[in-house]
Amino acid sequence: MSFAAYRGELREGHAFLLHARLLLGVVLMVMVTNGLDQGWSSVLLPVHAKENLGGARDLGLLAAVFGGCALLGALLYAAVGHRFRRRVLFTVAFLICGLPRFVVAAVADGTVPLAVTMAAGGLAAGMLNPILTTVMYERVPEQLRSRVTSATTAGVLMTTPLGGLAAGYLVEQAGLAAALLTLGALYFLTTLAPAVFPCWREMDGPVVGDGVPGVSSSGPSRPSPANAATPPRP
């Protein structure tokens, strides 16, 4: 494939995404939470484990608890997730897996309270990507999925390198507890987006034609940029 053709397809994917209200909102939201998650996992949690818990042993335990419960959450969603409205479940799950761990790490002593919090957070987090993947496959025509997915993946990872830097700076300037509460507050405000902005109601809305809301199946095989598009991974 020539560079010009590659650039054209890349531009088409970005144009499609920029005109999709729901999925653009998803990208912007997850872009922020991915940066905050990076600050948590690469700086805040290791520093907390070193200073207030049992060091590397407890850090590994907490990571394993979160990961194992996330797998369980994904399986749980596969079994019963269809019974719930996506927007409500997505919002509640993101609120559970976000702010609580930051607050518990800042104010509670010992490993057990944080382990319980991260177990609940992992269970909730495991439901997020299945919801987003379902939305993507419903709303992105098959011939555009690879380029739109590329655009969303790049978008949601944009802030990841900055998350660790920001968290490290906050810990150095304000202390661990203040950094935890600051990033936790930002996480909470970000995860309110599905409950605040009307475009998120499209999560439970009907899909027409090739998977793009409002586009007839008799339309062109390559939709114009005025259509809807894809999700990322939290």
Rg (CA only): 19 Å
Question: Structural class of the helices, strands and pairings?
Answer: mainly alpha
Give the overall pLDDT as a whole number. Answer: 85
**What characterizes the major β-sheet?**
none
What portion of residues belong to β-strands?
Answer: under 5%
How many structural domains?
1
Helical content (DSSP H or I, runs of 4+): over 70%
How many distinct helices? 11
Shape estimate:
globular
Overview in brief:
With 234 residues, the protein is mostly helical. It has a single domain (12-148, 163-203), classed as Growth Hormone, Chain: A (Up-down Bundle), CATH 1.20.1250.20.
Question: Describe it for me?
Answer:
- 72% of the residues lie in helices and 0% in strands.
- The chain is globular.
- The chain contains eleven helices and no strands.
- Mean pLDDT is 85; it is low at 209-234.
- Helix 2 packs across helix 9.
- It has 234 residues and is mostly helical.
